[in-house]
Specification:
alpha/beta; Rossmann fold; GMP Synthetase, Chain A, domain 3; 7-stranded mixed beta sheet; 5-stranded parallel beta sheet; 18 helices; 31 strands; globular; binds coenzyme A; binds adenosine monophosphate
Length: 644
């Protein structure tokens, strides 16, 4: 049987409502049918185990292997000669294609190499890799032997990597010798060595993929060369794991400096990924799906690696940027060359293209007729960008809303069910499986048009996080304690009269910089660690390209007489050193005082309004309104606060 509630039917009017209502009325029936698209060694006792609510588990009692479903199964079913992965790397000038049969061979061999190093079921493996096929091979190899991977984005600092190593306690770290940014080669291995020097936990081995652009020095005994190790390894077969066993941990910014280890299970994830390919993205097996993101982010986990492969598509691993590699026609070139059916990226990529080529002149050089739809996520999509993308490409542009925690879309225009009218600024309607509600401070649903906390009534559908790694308590406290029976998304927004959701802002300290999720609290902790800083605040100010950019406001300790410009430079360098270049933290303003409430809470939101030049009301609880005037003047002097 095929996956339920749409699969073999063409998109048609009323399909979204029918699927949505059924998914909420009969989640077990709905997802039980969807699960027929997956190969199981052992079927489930219960589709939805609610015996330990509010901790729910999907497909309890079942056994499967995610790698088998993503790779081996397709070879067995005749897709062996189809490209599974296309590696398109303008930054190295290389192009490679790996068929499903080759992928099976390479994954099995690397799985054997890991096993040879003692890695088994439940062991963790940190993957610190650039956008090369070996990143996906390492992830799938872990899945094959039941190990739990944790991919760390290359733009993070050694300290962030060390934090993740200490939390995940990997037996092995797999890393590339370097990553390639248009402006420079990023040597990953020295960052890894530095991270290991800072971490308390030490892996037994590091497997290093030597890239010719900058090979790394290997530490005898600990460090092993990927190529040599793999050549000597015996291929390993897929092992059955419980549907509820962890497939991976992905760390994401939380409201403190300590990142949250989002856990993904095997069974629910495989079912949700597969269902989403057909029903959200409207893609068929055999088609080319391109997610222009990075394997270090959730978009990369779900839609570069797992979903396209689970669905038998060809996925593109693109090692380049939307602009500058070599120009703003890069995306159109990839679409034409590989006949991409669906593209998924962050709005910031389109803002970058628009900035460099506002009339989309590059587009005329390419045939992009294979493209059927563009999906955008990772940050709120401004209507201008959405409309511009739709005009130049002539395909539906779908803004969809999700987060690392859910692993797939919470709200979207599900093109495989039915294309609903597009409203720029809205990610359309909740996806089947997600009972999305907007609640006011008193816990009751607010009227349409009224902003509130966006929450999801439990249970979350398959694929969403069952917990945080080694920290059930933090999971409950962070996500389940705001309102009994609901998951707190951390976003605020509203439904309009037509039931369209609008996601407007975060209710915590998370900001989105070029689609990358960062915690301003984490940056504040770094600034506060500088000996000259008495107190500080970091706010996300609106930026035309990256959506938001962090801005630091610091008050110096009494008696500090060093030049402010020197201190500001040190603070910028400190954030880059301790969090990483991805934070894009470039500006610090030294101010005499920070505005606070009478109870001493810094008024970050008000400062953000001033910096953005948007309207704000003087907070009733403000301690000293004159301080806001000072901040306003400092921001104007620094080129912010355009509305005066
Ligand atoms: N390894 C090491 N460093 C990295 C890195 C990686 N994998 N990825 C980014 N960086 C560095 C960049 O070199 C840059 O460093 P710099 O301060 O020395 O210039 C910094 O981190 C910020 O990177 P980025 O946010 O990518 O900014 P950018 O100015 O280089 O590019 C865009 C801007 C819009 C072109 C880029 O963000 C982009 O392509 N976004 C696409 C969408 C996307 O990937 N979203 C992710 C979630 S879907
Ligand atoms: P991440 O976990 O990195 O995927 O970031 C998730 C957060 O990014 C969400 O909680 C939102 O704040 C924001 N976000 C992602 N997609 C969208 C979207 N389509 N519209 C509005 N905000 C979004």
């Amino acid at each position: 049987m095929a996956d339920a509630a749409s699969t073999d039917t063409a998109p048609h009017a009323g399909a979204w409502r029918a699927a949505y209502e059924r998914s909420l009325a009969d989640p077990a029936g709905f997802w039980g049918e969807a699960a027929e698209a997956i190969d199981w060694y052992q079927r489930w006792d219960r589709v939805l185990d609610d015996s330990n609510a509010p901790a729910y588990r999907w497909f309890a009692g079942a056994e499967l292997n995610t790698c088998h479903n993503a790779v081996d199964r397709h070879v067995a079913q005749g897709r062996g000669a189809q490209p599974a992965i296309i590696h398109d790397s303008p930054v190295t000038g290389t192009l490679a294609s790996i068929t499903y049969a080759e992928l099976q061979e390479r994954v099995a061999r690397f799985a054997g190499a890991l096993r040879g190093l003692g890695v088994g079921k439940g062991d963790r493996v940190i993957v610190y890799m650039p956008m090369v096929p070996e990143a996906a091979i390492a992830m799938l190899a872990c899945a094959r032997i039941g190990a739990v991977h944790s991919v760390v984005f290359g733009g993070f600092s050694a300290r962030e990597l060390a934090t993740r190593i200490d939390d995940a306690k990997p037996r092995v770290v797999v890393a590339g010798s370097c990553g390639i940014e248009p402006s420079r080669i990023v040597a990953y291995k020295p960052l890894l060595d530095d991270a290991l020097a800072q971490a308390s936990h030490q892996p037994e081995h590091c497997v290093i993929l030597q890239r010719e652009q900058q090979p790394a020095d290997l530490m005898p005994g600990r460090d092993l060369d990927w190529a040599a190790l793999t050549a000597a390894a015996e291929p390993a077969d897929c092992v059955p794991v419980a549907a509820t066993d962890p497939l991976y941990i992905l760390y994401t910014s939380g409201t403190t400096g300590q990142p949250k280890g989002v856990v993904r299970d095997n069974g629910g994830h495989a079912v949700a990924m597969t269902w989403s390919m057909r029903n959200v993205y409207n893609v068929a097996p055999g088609e080319v799906f391109w997610s222009a993101s990075d394997v270090g982010w959730v978009v990369g986990h779900s839609y570069i690696v797992y979903a396209p492969l689970l669905h038998g598509c060809t996925t593109v691993i693109y090692e380049g940027k939307p602009v500058g590699t070599p120009d703003a026609g890069a995306f159109w070139r990839v679409i034409e060359q590989h006949k991409v059916s669906v593209l998924f990226t962050a709005p910031t990529a389109f803002r970058a293209i628009k900035r460099d080529d506002p009339e989309a002149k590059h587009l005329a050089r390419y045939d992009t007729s294979s493209l059927r739809a563009l999906f955008l996520a990772g940050e709120r999509c401004d209507p201008n960008t959405l409309e511009w993308a739709g005009e130049i490409l002539g395909v539906p542009v779908v803004d969809h809303w999700w987060q690392t925690e859910t692993g797939w879309a919470i709200a979207a225009n599900c093109l495989g069910l039915e294309q609903l009218p597009i409203k720029p600024g809205s990610p359309t309607k909740p996806v089947p499986g997600y009972d999305v509600q907007v609640l006011g401070d008193d816990g009751s649903a607010v009227a349409p048009g009224t902003i509130g906390r966006i929450m999801i009534k439990l249970p979350l559908p398959p694929g969403c996080l069952p917990t945080l790694w080694g920290n059930d308590e933090r999971f409950r406290a962070s996500y389940l304690s705001a309102e009994p029976g609901y998951y707190l998304s951390g976003d605020a927004g509203y439904f309009d009269d037509d039931g369209y959701l609008f996601v407007m802002s975060r209710i915590d300290d998370i900001i989105n910089v070029a689609g990358h999720r960062l915690s301003t609290g984490g940056m504040e902790a770094v600034l506060a660690g500088h000996p000259d800083v008495a107190e500080c605040a970091v706010i996300g100010v609106a930026d035309q390209l990256k959506g938001e950019l962090p801005l630091g406001l610091v008050v110096l300790k009494a008696g500090v007489e060093r030049a402010e410009v020197d201190i500001a430079k040190e603070l910028v360098a400190k954030v880059r050193q301790e969090i990483g270049p991805v934070a894009a933290f470039k500006t610090v303003l030294v101010v005499p005082r920070l505005p606070k409430t009478r109870s001493g809470k810094i008024l970050r939101g008000t400062m953000k309004h001033i910096a953005d030049g948007t309207e704000y009301r003087m907070p009733a609880t403000i301690d000293d309104p004159a301080i806001l005037e000072e901040i306003h003047d400092a921001l104007v002097a620094a080129g912010y606060a355009h509305a005066g």
